[in-house]
Amino acid sequence: QVQLVESGGGSVQAGGSLRLSCAPSGRFFSTYAMGWFRQAPGQEREFVASISKNGRTTYYSESVKGRFAISRDNAKNTVYLQMSSLKPEDTAVYSCAARAVATADTAYIRKADFGSWGQGTQVTVSS
Length: 127
Fold this sequence. Notes:
The model has no long low-confidence stretch (mean pLDDT 95). The chain has strands at residues 4-7, 10-13, 18-24, 32-39, 46-51, 58-60, 68-73, 78-83, 92-100, 116-117, 121-126. The protein contains no helices and eleven strands. By secondary structure, the protein is mainly beta. Strands 2, 4, 5, 6, 9, 10 and 11 form a seven-stranded mixed beta sheet that branches. Strands 1-3-8-7 form a four-stranded antiparallel beta sheet, with no helix packed on it. It is 0% helix and 48% strand.
């Protein structure tokens, strides 16, 4: 497992933007497929976006497609979630997740696919 630390959360008005970052510990970041999930109060944790270890494959939930963008910089050991056109319903704790993989182009969307999780960062969008 790898330790994950998220940053970049905060409060923003509807229509605004935020960029989340996740920096795993260790030297083998490039061997991990990464994902972002979120959990609103009283709701289950849900998939937001994911990216393969080479960055060529990405998946998004329908609710964020076209507004959020996931990317990674393997040289900086960081994965990003650029969030634009934020809505109040995007308010949640956002967590990044990692899965060690052998295949370069595979990304994952299920919670059970990931073995390491960060503590999360709060995103609050006001109307």
